[in-house]
Amino acid sequence: MAILPTLRGPSELRGLSDDQLNSLAAEIRECIISTVARTGGHLGSSLGVVELTLALHRVLESPRDRIVWDTGHQAYAHKLLTGRYSRFGTLRQLGGIGGFPRREESEHDVFDGGHAGTGLSIAQGLATARDMRHSMERIAVVVGDAALISGLSLEALNDIGHRQTQLLIVLNDNAMSISPTVGAFSQYFSTLKLSSAWKQSKTAYDRIVESLPVVGRPALSLSRRIRRMVVNFAQPGQLFEDLGITYLGVIPGHNRRGLEHIFRAALDVPGPVLVHVRTRKGAGYRPAERDQIAFHGAALPPMPGLPEARPGSDGHAPAHAPLSGAALARKESAMPQPGGSDEAPVEPSGNGNASAGAADMGTPSEAARAAAASRPPNYTYHFARELIDLARIDRRIVAVTAGMPTGTGLHLFQAEFPDRFIDVGIAEQHAVALSAGMALAGERPVVALYSTFLQRAFDQEVHDVCQNDLPVVIAVDRAGLVGEDGTSHQGMFTIPSQRQLPRMVIASPKDEQELRSLVKTAFAQVHPFALHYPRDPGFGVPVREPQVIPVGMGELLREGRQVLIVGFGPIVERGRQAADILESEGWSVGLLNARFAKPLDRQLILDTARGKTLLVTLEESVVTGGFGTGVLELLEEARLADPAYREVAVRIVGIPAECFVEHGSVDQLRRLLRLDAPGIADQIRETLVRLRATPDAVAPIDAAASIAAPLAIRPRGRTA
C-alpha cells in the first residue's frame, strides 16, 4: 500500500519503520519524476535531497521548528511531505502550487524563496528573533554549494560566525548550480572530499621519514611542524572553523539514518554548525544523473518511458502516476566581525551639507564648527530619536545597519537598546535579508542605510522583503544630493527603483517634525515601508506631537488658480519659496505636499489639478521613472476619461537622467541643477512662457518674511 497519499504531515514520519521510509523515498522520487515530466520543473535538485528532506523532518518538528530552503527549487520532497501530495500534479500551473516554497500554501513553508543565496540571511534573522524572544524553536537552512559562494551567503556566514547564533546549516554539495559550480570555493569543496586520502598519505610519509638513520627523529619533528602550518588551512572545514562555525563532514547525503544521527548531534552543539552533505543531483533517475545540466529545470528534455498524463476530475493531471522499474532506470545506489563603514560618520547635529568623508578633508575651522553648531539637528538625528521613543513602547522593534551606526544615528539606539541593535558590517544585502528573516518571525525591524549603499541590496528589497510582503522599515538616509562625495554617493536612484516594487510604500517628509510622524506611520502598518530623508539639517520648525498619517494621504498647503506645485520630501519648502517668487510676479500658485510617492493621494492630486494651466512636480531624485513620472501617469490616465485634465500641462522637475552628478557642496549642486528656490521658479516660469500663459495679476508678497518662517502657511483644503 502506498504511503505517500496517506501522510497528513511530517510528524507522521517519526512513526514509520526503516523499510517504510525506504519505500516512501522511492514513492517520492516516482511522484516527482512523473509530475515534472508533465509540468516541467526543477527535477535534479529535488531528486538529490529526498533522504536529506526525510531526515530533517524526522529530526525537527515543523512548523514549530523552521526549515529554510535555499534556493527553494530543491523543496519538492518537502512539499510532498507537508500536505500537498493531492495537489502536486498542479505544480507550476496556473492556480496550482508553486515551484518554490510559498507561505500562502503551507505553514511549513517559512519563506517565499526563488533566488540563490538568501537562505542563510533569512535563517539568521529567524534565529536572531528567537534569541531575542528567548524561545526554543530550532532553525535549519539547506543551502547548495553554488548558493554558498554568493556574496550574500558570505556576508551571512561572517555575521553568523561572529555572533555565534545557534543554527544548523546543511550544505547540500552536489558540485552543481545549473551548470557545474566554478571558482575557488568549488575547488575548496573538492579538496575536502579528498581529505581521507590526504590523511592516509600523511601517515605513510611519517613512517618513511622516521625510518631514516640518524636524522630520522629530528626530521620527523620538523616535518610535522611544517606540515601543520600547511594543513591547518587545507584540512576539512578549516575555513568554516576559522569563521567560528563548527564543521561536520563530508557526510554521505543518501544515507538517511546517518543523516538523522549527525543532525541530532549537530543540533546539540552550541553555536552555529555546518553539516557538509554530499549528494548526487538527479539521484534515482539515470537520465538526470547522466545529464545534470539538462535535467536541472525548468524546461526539461523528453523523458521516455513515462506514462501519459490523464487529466483527473478537476482537469489537472493526477498528482501521482506510478512508474515502472524500467522508467526509473535503477534504484538508489548504496546508501552511500562587524567591520567599519567605508564612510566616516556624520554627527547627528552637524552640518547637513558636510561630506560624510569629511574626516579625510582636514580639521574644520572654528568658524565652521560654530556654524555647524548653530544649525538645527539633522533628519538623521530626528529619525533616531523617534525610533528610540517607539522602541520603548514596542519591544519588537530591532535596528539594523551595515557598518554605519553613527552615520545613520543608530548609535543612539544602540546605547539604549544594545540587545536590539545589529551591525552586520559592510554587508547591505545581508542587512536587508536578515531584516526580512526577523520580520518573518514577528519582529519589527528597521534597516537604516544610505541611499547609495541601498542600491547594493535591490534584489533583497524585491525578492526577500516585497515578494514576502514583510513589514520591514527601510530608512533611506542621505536621500537626494549629498555633496562632496560625488558621483558614487548621490542618493538619486532609489525612488525609481522602489516605485516599481509591488507592496512597497514610499514616503518622505516636508520637514523634520513630519519625519517623526512618518516613522510612527511606518510601524503602524504591515507592509514594506521605505522612508526617504536627506542629510540636511532640519528647518527648526516647532516641535509637535507625531501622529500616524494614513498611508497615501497628501496635504494641501496653499491653493492657487493657475499653477499647482506637487512636491515630495523637503524640497517642498523650496517649492513654497518658488511659489512666493512667482506670486510676487502675479501668478496664482498652489502647493501640495505629497508625502507619499507610492501610493499617491490620487483624489487630492486630481481634485487640485483640475482646471490648472500647469502642474509641476518636485523631487530631489532622478526624473526618469520617479515621483514625477508617477504623477504624470496619474494625469494621463485621468485625461482619457475627463476632458478637464486635457489642457493641464505637466513639468517634472528633478535631477536630469543624462549624467551623474559630480562633487560639490549641496547648495552648489542645487544651484547648478536649478533645484534651489530661484532655479525652480525659473523652470516654472520658462514652462509658462512656452505655454504662452499670462499671470492673473501682479500681487507682490513679502517673500523674505515667508522664507524666514519655513512652511508657516496655514494648510487649506484636505490635510491629515
Detail the topology: elements first, then pairings:
Elements: H1 18-39, H2 43-47, H3 50-59, E1 66-70, H4 76-81, H5 119-133, E2 139-144, H6 145-148, H7 151-163, E3 167-173, H8 184-193, H9 195-210, H10 216-234, H11 238-242, E4 246-252, H12 256-267, E5 272-278, H13 286-290, H14 325-328, H15 366-374, H16 379-393, E6 397-401, H17 410-416, E7 421-423, H18 428-440, E8 444-450, H19 451-454, H20 458-466, E9 473-477, H21 494-499, E10 505-507, H22 512-523, E11 529-532, E12 555-558, E13 563-567, H23 571-583, E14 589-593, E15 596-598, H24 602-609, E16 614-622, H25 627-641, E17 649-655, H26 666-672, H27 677-690, H28 703-708
Parallel strand pairs: 1-2, 2-3, 3-5, 4-5, 6-7, 6-8, 8-9, 9-11, 10-11, 13-14, 13-16, 16-17
Antiparallel strand pairs: 10-15, 12-14
Helix pairs in contact: 3-12, 5-7, 5-18, 16-17, 16-22, 18-20, 23-27
Beta-strand segment tally: 17
Helix content: 25-40%
Broad CATH class of the largest domain = Alpha Beta
The largest β sheet comes out as: 7 strands, mixed
Q: Can you tell me the CATH topology of the largest domain?
A: Rossmann fold
Estimate the global geometry from the Cα principal axes: elongated
Separation of termini?
65 Å
Tell me what the structure shows.
With 720 residues, the chain is of the alpha/beta class. It has three domains: 4-194 and 230-326, 3-Layer(aba) Sandwich (Rossmann fold), CATH 3.40.50; 374-532, Thiamin diphosphate (ThDP)-binding fold, Pyr/PP domains (Rossmann fold), CATH 3.40.50; 555-708, Rossmann fold (3-Layer(aba) Sandwich). Helix content is 39%, strand content 13%. The strands form three sheets. It has a seven-stranded mixed β-sheet, sandwiched between helices. Helix 3 packs across helix 12 (256-267) and helix 5 (119-133) runs parallel beside helix 7. It starts with 17 loop residues before the first helix and ends in a 12-residue tail after the last helix. The relative contact order is 0.08. Residues 176-183, 190-202, 229-234, 307-365 and 699-720 have low confidence and may be disordered.
